[in-house]
Amino acid sequence: MSTRDRSQAAGDRAYRWTKDRILDGRLEGGRLISEGEVADALALSRTPVREAFLRLAAEGLLRLYPKRGALIVPVSPGEVHDIAEARTFLERHAAAKVIAAGTHREVAAEMRAVLDEQRAVPMPEHTARFTQLDREFHATLVQAAGNALLAGFYSGLRDRQLRMVNTALRDNTVRPPIIIEEHARICDLLAAGDTETLQALIGNHIAAVRDEATH
Asked: Do 96 and 104 form a contact (C-beta atoms < 8 A)?
């Protein structure tokens, strides 16, 4: 591996390590972190960490302060409401389109397979994995609608969606079982082709996570 390749690999490692911890809440919004902190944790020099911080700042996850470090940008209530509104619109639209296309039973089966994985995740010690599967569950519905532009937009919400749900579930032992129960109900309604009730449940389901994330 060339020196350039090693440098890029180190930068990618620092980027992924830091981003994963921001998304799952191990590095909380409002906290100031330094290049040295990440470099020491990964046994790297500060140069690849600096490059990683620049990438994360461009994504809106960090705010850089020269000679002081980087502030982890908190998830604002306004952002949470915007994410919830976008998700509700896209997922309700997808549900109606899948049912109208007559593929709802097959899609419900795909979503149940994800739900089975999510149900088996030990909580709260594996909240990050639970949240990843939560996102996959909902993305399965949106992707099944067959609109590449809307699916691409939904995919662009991924990082914000993960932060939102992780924020809602942090130290929350009540909500995860409710999420599992509501996901099962979503699958049942989709399989039954009950558009109206399903759309109402999707809205309430997302709103509940939104409210938990903004408390």
From this structure: no
